[in-house]
Amino acid sequence: MRKLLASALALVLMVALGGYGFWTQKRPEGHYLSDLRIELVLDQGVPGERGNLLGVEPLLYPTDYQNLQRLHRKLSAYLHQAQDQGLLNPRTVVVFPEHIGTWLWARGEKNEVYQVTRLREAWQWLELSNPLRYGLAMLAATGDDRRADAHLRMKAGQMAADYQQLFGGLAREFGVTVVAGSIVLPVPYVEEGRLQVGRGPLYNASVVFASDGSPVGQPQLQQYVDSEMRRYVDDGVSQPLHVVQTPAGRVGVLVGSDSWYPRNHELLQRQSAQLIVNPAFLSGKGSWQPPWRGNRHQPAAAQLPLSRGQVDEQSAWPRLSLAANPGLPGLSVFMRGQFWELGSDGQGFAFQAGQHLAGRPLQGARLLNLWL
Fold it and tell me: I need a labelling partner for 2 at 20 to 30 A (CA). Which of 19, 91, 154, 323 fits?
């Protein structure tokens, strides 16, 4: 009798595990509607032989990341509208915002991930749907927030491939240079024309893609990680800043708050940088007007000309970027949209000849253009 009971329990367990394994592999997709409109809020200068910097501030949501085709459709629609307005040419450098690639961890998941209202619930569905990958990632995770680390690490290979396919594809499709915002990956590097991930800490990195879709140089790592990410993302000071050659000139990429620090601009200037681009991200809906939160966990922040809370965010970002910049033309662009309960804010701006050029305020997707 005991053997019969044990056999029955073993059979039930096998069926349950088999059913669970089958469930984890199913990825049905729901209906999808998205706003593809984008407005030009800044158009500074006149067309010339030097080209232009074109900032894209997309309006994105979790469902945009359910598959790569959806995200490509939205971003390519933005660029088609820019093309129709005469803003794309072989010397155009298109700049996307910080973390536009990081959200690729949500690609290819169950509908429940996109339907819940809170990020923590989305994480729970992610873990339940990928038990083996998540368990292995937890074993390799580092930092103070190992769970957040594991969510990114478990899908890092897929994320890197998607990131290159998406942004390299857009660069090739439109014949422009693309600064592909940023993506958080473990020890990212380019080898034989492919973005790869290594073993080690996570870094917030930006890759530039040439008009043939290939990466230009190595990923640019964020040097001074923001307070919100320091628990699981490392500083990139081990890999110094570098410039990349583009048809519009030598471009230096400063990720996020890296644009605040004079030392970063000095390092780029020593390498004969001609343009500065700054993919940025500011978390929290309506966070552009409250007092500047600073970066109190970075010792270098003590040397900045502003104190935390002295001015609001919308004043601090251009003031700090202009104070640190040696007078080079540049562009800052911010991520927009809503990811579960986490909103984002920020209004991109340009700078040229020491002047701050603000675009028209707009809650939707925005384009900012600076002719060089």
Answer: 19
Q: Helices 262-270 and 313-324: crossing angle, nearest 10°? A: 40
**Span 36-107+155-371 CATH architecture:** 4-Layer Sandwich (3.60)
Among candidates 173, 203, 161, which has minimal Cα distance to 186? 203
pLDDT above 80: residue 121: yes
pTM of the model: 0.91
Angle, in degrees to the nearest 10, between helices 119-129 and 146-153:
60
Q: What is the dihedral of CA 249, 257, 237, 157, to 10 degrees?
A: -80
Q: What is d(CA 175, CA 79) in angstroms, rounded to the nearest whole number?
A: 11
Per the structure block, which two tokens stand in for 292? 């500047």
- CA–CA separation, 289 and 358 (whole Å): 15
Residue 363 φ/ψ, nearest 5 degrees: -80, -25
Question: What interhelical angle do 131-140 and 119-129 show, nearest 10?
Answer: 110
Q: What is the C-alpha separation between 197 and 220, in angstroms, rounded?
A: 14
Q: Which residues pair with 371 in a beta bridge?
A: 52
* Residue 46 pLDDT: 94
213: left (phi over 0), alpha (psi -120 to 50) or beta: left
d(CA 93, CA 244): 12
Give the CA count within 13 Å in the CB-facing half-sphere of 39.
8
For range 13-27, the mean pLDDT: 45
Predicted pLDDT of residue 31? 52
